[in-house]
Amino acid sequence: MRVLVVEDERGLAAAIARGLTEEGFTVSVAHDGADGLWSARHEPYDVIVLDIMLPRLSGYEVVRRLRARSVWTPVLMLTAKDGEYDEADALDLGADDYLSKPFSYVVLVARLRALLRRGAPARPAVLAAGDLTLDPARRRCERAGQEISLTAREFMLLEFLLRRPDEVVSKTDILTHVWDENFDGDTNIVEVYIGYLRRKIDAPFRRHIIETVRGAGYRLLGTGG
Fold first, then answer.
1. What is the mean pLDDT of the segment spanning 9-38?
2. CA neighbor of 153 nearest in space, from 125, 181, 193, 188
């Protein structure tokens, strides 16, 4: 099985490569994001081990560009131990698994073998409601054929709503899934971001897809408004 290791700490990269080779893997190493991206796009690998903090291109950007080009090789991302949002961001961008540093090589090998058994993931479906579409893999949103630029949080909120068409979702549901279940800030943040979305995906098109259900929450119209 061919593994690409993208890690800028040369000592760690060499140790990972040595350990995986002893386990029977064929290992290639890249020490920055740009070289790792090129290798992942032009060489056939069964799985990729990808650090987040890399020179030239971050691991986030590497996996985002791979998924945008329909490269579905399983990716295990190496995240910082104190990066509380690293894991969620990695999975949101298309990574298949993550491992926090420092890690056990036994666990690393077990995770990689699990990814290999699972195989390359199927391309995520494009979510749609009427003329509004959201492509989670390419991080792209369009309405009536026009691309709409969304922040990461706006994208997450719209994806959450699109996965629950015609369903009333409460502020609590939104905070738990789009922010954090332990979020203790002002719940009005939900109203603020719903407003941001409406200005981008509703107002310019004169059709309203997001409804406020008084006293209950919000509903995205599955027919597109």
1. 91
2. 193
Specify whether the CB–CB gap between 211 and 221 falls below 8 A: yes
Residues 152-202 have pLDDT tens digits of 889 889 988 998 889 999 988 888 777 755 566 777 899 999 999 999 999
The beta strands (E) that lie in 31-143 are given as: 47-51, 75-79, 97-100, 127-129, 132-135, 140-143
- Give me the number of domains the chain comprises: 2
DSSP, collapsed to helix, strand or coil, labels residue 10 as helix
Give CA angle at 213 (209, 216), nearest 5°: 135
Sign of the four-CA dihedral 178, 180, 181, 187: negative
Do residues 142 and 179 both lie within one domain?
yes
Cβ of 176: how many Cβ atoms within 10 Å? 14
Give the 3-state secondary structure of residue 113.
helix
The reply to whether 10 falls in a domain is yes
- Inter-axis angle of helices 105-118 and 10-22, to 10 degrees? 60
